[in-house]
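Q: What would this chain look like folded?
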Amino acid sequence: MHFRFPQRVLFKHCDPAGIVFYPRFFEMINDAVEAMFGDLLHWPFEVMHPEHRVPTAAISVQFRAPCRHGDRLDLQLTIKAVGGSSLALNTRAVADGILRFEADQTLVCVGPDGRPCRWPENIRQKLGGLMESHS
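A: My prediction, written as structure tokens:
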């Protein structure tokens, strides 16, 4: 694991049954990714966005156990692979020692024209260094 992001399940995340409405998990995953870019890579979205963006090209989520209003999730992000313009991530959400969901996603670095471009060299080095330090 390379980055942790705490997420409390709020009323706004839940449906009338009091469990998280599944699209809200995608927002939580994106919040964790945005925090990782800012806090871990020191490349916050507000600095990145004039020249680059990192949209999700693919995502797969396995929902293991329900999340309820008030749960405190620990989103654990792991960098799995770095390509020329891609980044594979795994996110595990754990609460009370129980795996609640797990997501695999691929981000793509794109330029202002919306086309894939290579990661800036300093970001590529940081990502590579993080993977080496946790292998």
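The mean pLDDT is 96.
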